[in-house]
Amino acid sequence: MLRTFVSLFKNKEIRNKIFFTLAMLLIYRVGAAIPVPGVDSVALSEQISDNSILSMMNMLGGGALEQLSIFAMGVTPYITSSIIIQLLSMDVIPALSEWAKSGQTGRQKIEKTTRYLSVVLAFVQAFSLVYGFDKQYSILESSALSAYLYTATVLCAGSAFLVWIGDRISMKGIGNGISMIIFGGIVSNMPSQFTQVYSILVGGSSNGEVFNGALQFALYCFMVLVIIIFVVIMETAVRKIPIQYTNSISTRGMKNDVTFLPLKINSASVIPVIFASSIMTAPQIVISFFNTELYTKLSSFLALNTPVGLGIYAVLTILFTFFYTDLQVDPEKMADNLKKSDAYIPGIRPGADTKKYLHKVLNRITVLGAIGLTIVAVLPYLLPMFTSIPSSAAIGGTGIIIVVGVAKETMGQLKGQLTQKQYHGFLN
After folding, report:
1. For the segment 379-396, what is each residue's pLDDT rounded down to a tens digit?
2. Nearest Cα to Cα of residue 70 among 39, 91, 105
3. How far apart are CA 363 and CA 367, in angstroms?
4. Of 376, 340, 423, 46, nearest to 235 (Cα)?
5. Are the C-beta atoms of 244 and 259 separated by less than 8 Å?
6. Reported pTM
7. Strand locations in 267-363, DSSP E?
């Protein structure tokens, strides 16, 4: 690993890409510390720390939501827009379905539509959050409609600017720009979480309890390490299905190799967790416009620090894991591709039987992926129920999944670029 890092920094082009990415992330973190004018960020911070769903949104944004900074919305509207367009492209809207099959030109049109929709969603979500926060916590200096529109416009512009930064990272930096922004926000928030846990377990202890507090903090760090290892295993685990070829050319070329069709245990990644939290948050935002008392009751009922709310959250995560996996992995398309490549699964007839077999295997491994993802997702809220650690500083399972996934993807891209440069230099 160390040798890989040294090789990366020796390559001037890759080194420049790394520095450019770091510079863009620095701009993001500076903007995340600039609050929107006219907002009482202290009052908002106290309320978010007590709300489990808002705490998760704040964690994904690197702490930008708790002070309602200009980047408080993050890239969440763009992600939501991408998911909506992806769903509508599956033979729901004919124009989008045709664009999806039209190659590079169609993808450009879909991307343009996604960006327009993300701006609309960003403004609607920003206005809803500002209105709800002000009605509940009185965070704005003025409650006039113009103040709501102004704050929502600033937040919408900040979200659009973050998407632009993500594009620049994708073009001139390393990794996927949107993913890197989320990664930077989560990682930047981790030191403060460890500091907060340390001050609670050790800093506030008396002389006789310092040892017990230090022991609990060491146990907390060990649990974080165990969760990271578990997430790495879950993200890299695949079910390998053996593949054989019938044509003579492929057989001669691979006679000493075993070819596999890999199916990931967790094909949905962290998307089901985002879906589940959005479904639980949306009704609260809508009701906050009409009935403050009902909003308060519903927020208490759906809070993730209660058994009922956490149970609903877990069930939604499992259901959305199967739903999104079904969208991401198409057994019928995989079976057709195998047939076109003159390949087959030993013991399974090509065509409908292959599709049925792949669907059955995918459902079985998705059960394991859904259970593992749910455990990691609910652990940050389950732990504070039995310990003195607050929910705002609990082990961020969702954040760890994102960090591990982005780090794994980025390192794979860097190694690929390094190998390509070495291969190109060898040919020259």
Report:
1. 877 777 776 665 555 556
2. 39
3. 6
4. 376
5. yes
6. 0.77
7. 343-344
